[in-house]
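The freezer alarm interrupted the setup, so I double-checked each line after restarting. Inputs confirmed:
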Amino acid sequence: MKARHALVLLLALVVSPGLLRAQAVIEGRVPLPKGRTTPVMNKRYEIVAQGGVLSTNPPLAVVYLEGSFPAPATAPVAQMIQKDLTFVPSLLPVQAGTKVEFPNLDDTYHNIFSYSAAKRFDLGRYRSDEKPVPSQVFDVPGLVTLHCDIHEHMRALILVVATPYFVMTDTEGRFRLTGLPAGRYTLKAWIDSNTTLERVVELRSDTTLQADFP
Amino acid sequence: MSRPGPSPSRVAGFRRRLLVAMMLVISGCTALALYFAQRNLEANVEHDLQRQFQAELTALHNIQETRQAAMLERCRALVRRPRIHAALEDNALDLLYPSAEDELHDVMGGVDEPPAEPALHARFYRFLDRAGRVISPPDPEKTGRLSPEEEEQLALNGVPDRQQLGYLPGRPGDAVAELSEVVTMPIVSSENGEVIAALVLGFKPVQPGGAGSGIRSGVWVNGRLYASSFDAAAQAVLSGEVWRAAGSAPEHAESSIRLPIDGVPQLLFYKRLNPGSLFPPAYEVCVYPLAELQARQRQLRWQVLGVGGLLLLGGLGASHVLSARLSRPVEKLEVDSAEDRTLRARAEAALELTSAELQRSARFSADASHQLKTPVTVLRAGLEELLARENLTPDECDQLSALIHQTYRLSSVIEDLLLLSRMDAGRLHLVFSPVNLTQLIEASLDDLGALPDELNLAVETDFPPDLYLAGEKRFTSLILQNLLENARKYNRPGGRIRITAREEEGRVFLAIGNTGRPIPPQAQAHIFERFHRGAMGENVPGYGLGLNLARELARLHQGELRLVRSDDEWTEFEASFRLVRAPEPPAASPA
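Predicted 3D structure, all chains:
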C-alpha cells in the first residue's frame, strides 16, 4: 500500500509543473485543541463528535495549500479500510478526483454510506471477499462523513481538497509541506468540521517558509 | 289420700310444648346459619368474579404491555438507525423519508402486502423537527396519508426528551379501530447527545377482548369513548363517568366502580393509558357485566333456601322424634309418681294406724305399770310383815325372803316398763346438765363390789378424771348400770370386765367389755330389740329389756349405743355422749 502511495505521490510530483521550478517548503505549527484523552499508543484516531462538531481524537489538523492547480491526469487512489469495526484511518485527506477504495478486512458485513453534500453514496452490504473492492471517486471538495449502516458507531471523515499539496500534522500540530510551487497562495488548516484556519503565504523557490497558525 | 293419677292430656301437653320449643330453636338456628351462609357465599361469588375480572384484565394488560413494549422497542431501534441519524445529522433531510421508508418497510407494509408483524401494523409515520413541527413527507402515500388536522395533532411544543404515547382519533367513527396509537420517540444525536428530532409512528390499535371473555373495552380520549361493543346510550354513560373520573383523578389513576348500564350492573374499570404524556390523556375503559354474578347469586339464594327448607324439615322431624323420646321418661315418671303417691298414701295410713296403736299400747303399758306397782308394793309390805313374825321356821324365812326378792325384781321390771312406755309415748324429756362420768363409774364400781361375787371377776378401769358429759344423771347412771350388769351377768367365772372412757372430737365414749360368751352373729342385729335375750341360758336373770332401754336412753342423750365386738374372747359395748365442759366450781352440778 505504502509503496503504491509513494508511487502515486512521486507521479504527482513528476507531472506537477512545480517540479520544473525550484520547490518551496512550508514548515509550521497549527494550534490544536486539547484532546479528551491522553495520547494514544498506536496511530489510530477516532472520530469524535462534540457539540455536533466532528474532529479526530487526539486532535489532528490537515494543512493544505489552496490555489488553482490542474486536475491530475490519472485519478489518485486512496484506501479507507474497515478493520475491527472501525475505519482506518479515521480521517483521510484526498485530492479531489481521488478514487477511494473501501476494503472490508472484518469477517462481518459492512455497509458504507454517506449522506454528506460533498458525496452521497451507498456501497450496500459487502464482505471482505467482494471483488472488485468497492470504491468511490471523490471529486467535489468538502467534508464527507462515512457511516456504516450495520455498525452505527463507525464513523470516519474524508476531507476532499482541491489541491495536491496537503499534509496531516502530528499530534503536536507540526507540519511540513514540501515540493510546493512558488507563488502567493492561501494556506489552510482544517482542525474540525467547523474550524478551518487560513493564512496567505508567499512562497519562493528553494526557501523554507516558517508559517505558524496563530 | 287420693291424688290425681297420670293424665294423658298433661303428658301430651308437655310433649307439644317441648316440640314447639325445639322447633323454634331449630328454626332460629337454621335461619341464622342460612343467613350467614348465604351472605358468605354471595360474598365469595362476588369475590371470585372480581378476581376473574382482575385476572382477565391482567391478562389483557399483559398482552397490551407486551405489545407496547415491542412497539417501543421497535421505535427505539428505528431511531438508532444510522441512515436516519445520517440524514438528520449530515443535513440530508431530503433523504430522511426515503431512508425511513426502507427501515420501516416491515411495520408499514406495502400498499398491497400486509406488514411482516400484524400486531405492529403502523398506519403512518412522520418526523418532528427540533421545534416539534412535523417535517412534511415528500410522498404522503408512502408514509401514510394524514389530513392536515391530524398532522397538526402530532405536532408537539418542542421535541420531547422522552417517548410519548397518545391516541389519535382518526376517521369519523366511534370504534377502537378508528383510533391510532401514536408513539413519539425522540431521536438523540450521537454527535452531541441532544434531541434533534423525533419519530412519530401511528399504530393500528389491537382489538382487545378475546372470544369468551366477558370484558368489553374501549379507549376514552378527548371526551369520547371509542369502543365498538357499546351502544350509543352506554357509550354516553361510560363517557360521562370517565369524564368525571378523569377530571378528578390523579395522573396514574386506575379504579373500578359499579355502574348500571341498560339496567344491568356492570363493573367499570378505567386506567390512564398514557400517564405523563404530552398527548391528551387517554383512558382504557373496561366493562365487565355483573349479570352473570346476579344470576349466580339468585341461583345461590334459591339453593340456600332449598337446602334451608330441607334442613328445617329434617330438623322438625328430628325434633318430633326427639320430643317423643324425651317425653317418654316423663310419662314414665308421671306413672311412677302416681304409683308412688298411692304407695305413700297407703304407708301414711299404715303409719298413722301404727302410731295410734303404739300410743294406745304405750298408754296401756303406763296404765298397767301404775296399776301393777301398787299391788306389788302391797304384796311386798305383806310379805315383809310375815317375815317379821317370830314363829317362823328358818325354812319359811328363806321362802319369804325369796318371795320378797321376787317382788323387788317385779317392781324393777315394772319400773323399766314404765320408763319405756314413757319413752314410747314421747313423754320422756331429759333435762341436760353436766354429768361427771368419772364419779358415776366410781360409784357403780362401789355398787358392783357390794354384790356377791360368785364369778370371781377382775375389773379393769381406764378413764381420765372429771370427764363431763351432757345428760341427766339418773338416766346416764341407768345406762352405765345396765351395761355393767350385763358385763357381769354374762361373764364366765374368773373372767374380766374392763371399763374405759375417753373423749374424742367433742364426744365422750364409754366402753364396757367383758369376757362373756360371744353373741352369735345372727343374733347381733337383734340384741337391742325389746324382750330379746338371744341364746342366753335361762339361768341368767333378766327380761331382755336392759339393752333396749340403754340404747333408747343413750339416744335420748343425743348419743348412741352399739356393739363393738363380740367373739370368743371379748364382747364390748360402746356408748357415746356429748362432751361438755366441766361446770364452774360455784355452779354445782345438780346431783
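Quick read of the result. The longest strand of chain A covers residues 183-192.
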